[in-house]
Structures are given as structure tokens and as C-alpha cells.
Amino acid sequence: MWTEYGIDGVDAIRVVVSCVIFFVVVVVMVRVLGPRTLASLSSFDLAALIALGALIGRAILGDSPTLAAGLLGLATLVLLQALTGQLRRLDLGAKIVNARPVVLMAGAELLSENLSRSHVTVDEVHARLRQAGIRDRQEVACVILESTGQISVLRRGTRIDRALLTHVVGAEHIPDEFVAV
Question: What is the rounded CA–CA span in Å between residue 169 and residue 50?
Fold first, then answer.
């Protein structure tokens, strides 16, 4: 009976290696596809994500999942997440793991190249503007896709501290009238 709950050494190694490989592949895919990939999920996206999780879980645990294999897989994924969090504290690690923020809109102008590169649609930007209470595009200083995948809207008025735009792709497109000297 207890053999149904356990795991042997070879299967344990397979579970750990599979977890590491899937974790790295998912991180690479999110980096390639952009942070917007997981930031705002529609019901279709959520269904696809659940199916993807089930598929990956089955591939990691093998034909006959056991309690020990599941616990080992969970522990491995939590450890990988913790290690990634520590890696992001280093400059090089942050560059590898985190996407850079991108200006999507500078003043009233949408930056179509940045939208395309970031996999963000004009409709998504307009929705975020409405959520921020923007009634006219002339109210906007800039819109930035953050490294988290969230979209920030900065209004005209008080100038933007230049330090807040450090490492932001496309910051040079923000009109000088909106940026503090």
C-alpha cells in the first residue's frame, strides 16, 4: 500500500529535472512573448492556462503520480521560484528574468511599434485609459507597460521625475514638457 504513495530515486530525479526544464521553458516563453502574456487573463486565457498547467503537471509527475512525486514537484517549483526571486535582486539576474518597461503612449501619441513588440492592442490601452479616468488623450503624459505586465497611466500636470524613466524602453519619445529636468 505505501508503495503507491512513495517514489524511487530514478523517478525522484526525473521529477526534479522535469520541473527545472518546464520552469525554465515557461520563463523563457514569457520573456519572449512579453510580460503582458500573463498579466491580464481573459476567460479563454484562464482556461488555456489551466489546461497548460494540467499538461505540465502530468508530464512532470509521469504515468502514475504518487503523493511523494507531487510533494517533490511542489517543493522543486517553490525552490525554483525562490531562487528566481533571489536572482532578480542582482542586476544581471534582473536583466535575464525581468522584461524592461516599455512606453506605449507618449503624450497623446500611441507608439505602434512598441505596442506591437509588447503584444498590447490599442483597445487594451484605451481600456486602461478609461480605468484611469482619462476622458481625452490630451490628458496623458505617458502610458507604460511595466515589467509586471500591468499598464501604468501618468497624467499631464506634475512633471515626471526622470529617474522614474530609467531603463524604460521608448522614454525618449515622451515630450520634454512632461519630464522634469
Answer: 32
pTM passes above 0.85: no
Q: Which three three-digit cell numbers place residue 116?
A: 506591437
Going edge to edge, which strands form the sheet with 102-106? 109-110, 102-106, 140-145, 151-155
| Three-state DSSP state, 101 | coil
Set of cell numbers at residue 49: 492556462
Q: pLDDT 10s digit of each residue in the chain, 181 long? A: 456 778 888 888 999 999 999 999 988 888 887 777 766 677 887 888 888 888 888 888 887 788 888 899 999 999 999 998 898 888 888 878 888 899 999 999 999 999 998 889 999 999 999 999 999 999 999 999 998 889 999 999 999 999 999 999 999 999 999 999 8
Give the HSE-up count for residue 172: Cα atoms under 13 Å, Cβ half-sphere.
1
The helix/strand/coil state of 145 is strand
Contact between 69 and 11 under an 8 Å Cβ cutoff? The reply is yes
Contact 144, 154 (CB under 8 A): yes
Neighbours of 161 (CB within 10 A): 10
CB atoms within 10 A of CB 38: 15
